[in-house]
Design brief:
four-stranded mixed β-sheet, five-stranded mixed β-sheet, about 45% helix, disordered N terminus, D-Maltodextrin-Binding Protein, domain 2, 15 strands
Length: about 500
C-alpha cells in the first residue's frame, strides 16, 4: 500500500473545492445518465478517434514511463498486429500523482480504452458509470480470461454484483513480510527468527545505528515507502485506510485505526525512530531512494526475495512473514484493469486483456521489455536483466503465473499462498459508497495531508492525531463508520 504524500496549499484547496462541486453536480443530475451520453461517445469517435485500419488502444498505467519505451512498444505492437490486428499506446503517470491524474481523466472525459485501477479509485469510477460493465462481455469476447482465474477472484472484483474490471491474478491474497539485508544480520549475529515484535525491531535498528555510524539509517525511507501498519485491517474497498475491520473479527466491528492501541503503538515507534535518527530526516522530501534499504516492509509470497532484490539492487535479502495470507476485497481489488465506458474498442480491449493474461510472450514483453535488448532468457526459462531501461510496475499489468520469473525465483510460493489463504470476514461484503461520496472524498483529502508524516514519524503525534481526528470528524468520518457498520450488520444479519 502506498501512502499519498502531504499536499497542501492553494492548488490542493482549489482541487478539493472543485471536486466537491463536481460531486454535487453529478449527484443532482444523475451522473450515469448525463455524463456518459451516446452523443458524447459519437463526438469522441468522430473527432478524437478517427477510423483507423489498425486501431490503436490507449492503456493508462501507473509508474514512470520506461526509458526504452519506443523500442519496447514497437516490439509489442508488431506482436499485437499479428495476433489481434491492433496497436497499443501505453501512457504512464508516476505513483505520486496517479490518483489525481486518473480523476482528472475521468472528470474531463479524456479518451482512453483501458486504465489501471485499484481500491483508491475503482469503486468511485464504477459507481459514476465511467467503467464498462464487462460481466457478460467477458464470456463473449474473452472466454479464456474468465477460465484462468478462480471464481473467488472474480467474486472479489465485483461491484454491486457486476464486474467492471479485470483483476490481476498475482499475490491476490495479502501476505506481509519484514525484509532484511542478510549481511547486516550476519555482521551483528542476529537470528531472523528472534525478530518477532516491533520492540525487537527497535533493538535491532539501534544496534545497527551504533555500529554503522551517524549517517547510516536502518529504516531508510522516501515518499514512496511505508511499513504498511494498516494492512492488518480490511478497509472493505473504501479507499480510506484508517477505517477497517479485523479480518478475523466475528463481530465485524468497524473501527478508526487512529484510535486503536496496536496502531498507536506502532506510530509511536515510528516517531521515536525519526527523532533518534533511525529514519532519515529527508524522508518526506525525496521521491525515490538511490541506495538499497537495510530493512523494509513488503507484500509478497514465499520466495519473493528474488523480486525484491532485483528491485532494490541490493545484496542478498531474507524475509520474515508477519501476517497473512488472507483474501479480502482490498487485496483482490488492489490491482485491476478496466475498460472505459466510452471506449470505441471494447471488444478489442477485452481481447487484449485476455492475451496479456494468457500469452506468456506478450506478458514478458510488458514486464521486461525487448528480448536481447533489455533482458534474455536463461536455459531454465528464467529472466536475466541486461538493463533496467524497461522498468514497469509488473503487478499492475496481468497474470503473474504465466510471466517468466526472474532468475533464482519462481511463482510456486505465490500459487501456494493463493490456494491456502484464509478469507476475511468481509470478503463477500459489497459496500454501497454512493451515499458517502462527499464524506469519503473529504476524509481522503484530509488523510492524504497526514499519511506521509505519520508513515515516516515526522509528525508530533500529540498534536497531529487530535488535529487530524477533529478534521476527519468534522468532515464525516463518524458518518462513514456508522453507515459502514449499518450495511455490514444488515448483510450479515446482526441483531440490533
Amino acid at each position: 500500500m502506498r501512502l499519498e504524500g502531504c499536499v497542501s496549499g492553494e492548488r490542493r484547496k482549489g482541487k478539493r473545492f472543485f471536486f466537491v462541486l463536481l460531486l454535487l453536480s453529478l449527484l443532482l443530475t444523475f451522473l450515469e445518465a448525463c455524463s456518459y451520453t451516446e452523443e458524447k461517445v459519437r463526438k469522441e469517435e468522430a473527432v478524437i478517434r478517427p477510423e483507423e485500419e489498425v486501431p490503436t488502444l490507449i492503456w493508462w498505467m501507473a509508474g514512470e514511463k520506461p526509458v526504452d519505451y519506443e523500442a519496447g512498444i514497437e516490439n509489442i505492437n508488431a506482436y499485437l498486429e499479428e495476433k489481434l490486428q491492433i496497436r497499443l499506446e501505453l501512457r504512464f503517470e508516476g505513483w505520486g500523482g496517479f490518483l489525481d491524474k486518473t480523476q482528472d481523466i475521468i472528470y474531463d472525459q479524456e479518451y482512453f480504452d483501458i486504465m489501471f485501477v485499484d481500491t483508491n479509485n475503482f469503486g468511485l469510477f464504477a459507481s459514476m458509470g465511467a467503467l464498462q460493465d464487462i460481466t457478460d462481455l467477458i464470456h463473449a469476447y474473452a472466454p479464456k480470461l474468465w477460465e484462468i482465474m478462480p471464481e473467488l477472484i472474480w467474486s472479489g472484483a465485483r461491484q454491486d454484483g457486476r464486474i467492471y474490471a479485470v483483476p490481476t491474478y498475482k499475490d491476490s491474497a495479502l501476505t506481509q513480510y519484514w525484509i532484511f539485508e542478510k549481511r547486516y544480520l550476519e555482521k551483528y549475529n542476529i537470528d531472523i527468527d528472534s525478530l518477532q515484535s516491533w520492540s525487537d525491531l527497535d533493538a535491532y535498528f539501534r544496534m545497527l545505528k551504533r555500529g554503522e555510524g551517524e549517517t547510516f539509517y536502518p529504516v531508510l525511507s522516501s515518499r514512496e515507502d511505508s511499513l504498511n501498519i494498516f494492512n492488518e485491517y480490511d478497509s472493505f474497498t473504501t479507499g480510506l485506510p484508517i477505517i477497517g475491520v479485523k479480518p478475523d473479527d466475528a463481530e465485524r466491528r468497524v473501527v478508526c485505526l487512529l484510535e486503536e492501541e496496536n496502531i498507536l503503538e506502532k506510530l509511536e515507534y515510528l516517531r521515536q525512530w525519526y527523532l533518534d535518527g533511525l529514519i532519515n530526516p529527508n524522508a518526506m522530501q525525496i521521491e525515490t531512494l538511490s541506495e538499497p534499504r537495510p530493512f523494509f516492509c513488503g507484500i509478497g509470497w514465499p520466495g519473493a526475495e528474488h523480486v525484491w532484490q532485483q528491485d532494490e539492487g541490493s545484496g542478498e535479502l531474507v524475509a520474515k512473514q508477519i501476517y497473512g495470507p488472507i483474501y479480502s476485497k482490498d487485496s483482490i481489488q488492489g490491482a485491476m484493469n478496466a475498460v472505459y465506458a466510452n471506449s470505441r474498442y471494447k471488444k478489442e480491449a477485452l481481447e487484449l486483456l485476455e492475451l496479456v493474461n494468457t500469452d506468456q510472450k506478450l506478458r514478458d514483453m510488458l514486464a521486461y521489455g525487448v528480448e536481447g535488448r533489455n533482458f534474455e532468457y536463461n536455459q531454465d526459462g528464467t529472466v536475466h536483466y541486461l538493463n533496467r531501461d524497461w522498468n514497469t510496475s509488473t503487478y499492475t499489468q496481468g497474470n503473474f503465473l504465466i510471466m517468466s520469473p526472474v532468475e533464482g525465483g519462481s511463482w510456486e510460493g505465490m500459487e501456494w499462498n493463493n490456494k491456502n489463504a484464509e478469507k476475511s470476514v468481509l470478503l463477500e461484503f459489497e459496500m454501497d459508497l454512493q451515499e458517502l461520496e462527499m464524506e469519503l472524498s473529504a476524509c481522503k483529502e484530509i488523510w492524504n495531508e497526514y499519511a506521509l508524516g505519520f508513515a515516516v514519524g515526522a509528525f508530533d503525534l500529540e498534536k497531529a492525531i487530535p488535529e487530524c481526528m477533529q478534521r476527519l470528524r468534522k468532515n464525516g468520518l463518524d458518518t462513514i463508520i456508522s453507515e459502514a457498520q449499518k450495511q455490514i450488520d444488515a448483510q450479515y444479519g446482526k441483531d440490533k
